[in-house]
Write a structure and sequence with these properties.
This protein has 196 residues and is an alpha+beta fold. It has 5 helices and 7 strands. Helix 2 crosses helix 3 and helix 3 runs antiparallel to helix 4.
Length: 196
């Protein structure tokens, strides 16, 4: 009986996430995805997501690699939380048993970059643009669970923040999904507003 209840709860959670993803996609297509921006740290958002998701990722281990002095960014925290959540869940689905996922956050050239690296099969070069399309499922892993919505939603959110997202081969095998968000530069903005 307990196993049956556990299965019901798991399936209810999965259905709830599917409905939320479909609603998010509908909002995106209607042009209603408007970030409510506030100054925040992508490093802090990443740490919170990892702490929340760890119990749901099974035996997959997430290693955090956060640079010193990560600048703040002007973002919708809930939306960026969803991007990192979607990338981690995607990486976990494609990771081998007891595999490691690396989540890195670092500033470079006026942006803050977040990279999620897994040790899975990787993404073939011909699929690297299509994986960000709604409902697209890679031909190499057709039996894995998922809706084909997570990466499309992540792409839309990052784009709405003036950033970009892409996937490439990880150095040690697997896939490395990276997104970049323009860094918040309060001093420059204040000077521009003062001179306007």
């Amino acid at each position: 009986e307990r196993e049956l209840l556990t299965t019901i709860l798991e399936e209810t959670d999965r259905l709830n996430r599917l409905v939320c993803n479909i609603l998010d996609l509908a909002r995106i297509r209607a042009g209603a995805l408007m970030p409510s921006r506030h100054e925040a740290g992508l490093d802090e958002i990443a740490e919170a997501v990892v702490a929340r998701l760890a119990p749901r990722l099974g035996d997959v281990v997430v290693a955090l690699d956060i640079a010193d002095d990560v600048p703040s960014v002007e973002v919708d925290e809930m939306q960026l939380d969803q991007v990192i959540t979607n990338l981690l869940e995607n990486a976990a689905r494609h990771s081998p048993p007891a595999g490691e996922i690396r989540l890195s956050v670092a500033p470079t050239d006026g942006v803050v970059g977040v990279t999620v690296t897994d040790r899975g099969p990787g993404v073939p070069a011909e699929d690297r643009e299509r994986v960000f399309e709604a409902f697209y499922r890679g031909a190499s892993t057709p039996d894995l669970p998922g809706t084909g919505l997570g990466l499309a939603i992540a792409n839309a959110i990052v784009t709405a923040h003036g950033g970009r997202i892409w996937v490439q081969d990880a150095p040690e095998g697997g896939a490395a999904f990276t997104f970049e968000i323009p860094a918040h530069e309060p001093d420059v903005r204040a000077e521009q507003e003062a001179s306007a």
